[in-house]
Amino acid sequence: xxxxxxxxxxxxxxxxxxxxxxxxxxxxxxxxxxxxxxxxxxxxxxxxxxxxxxxxxxxxxxxxxxxxxxxxxxxxx
Length: 77
What we know:
This protein is mainly alpha-helical.
């Protein structure tokens, strides 16, 4: 009989939801808003090209780290 606690969403599940929201909602809308954020980009040492290259790496790195963490946590001896 499966353990009922193993079916709970848990921290890993909510981490995955947060990563997907960032990857699929926050970053695309940030990229859309880059032209309006010219003042912010000038305050940071980022140009438009740099911002378009760096922003997609944020969720990619987070999703990769989450995948490694999940794989190591679910590893069976």
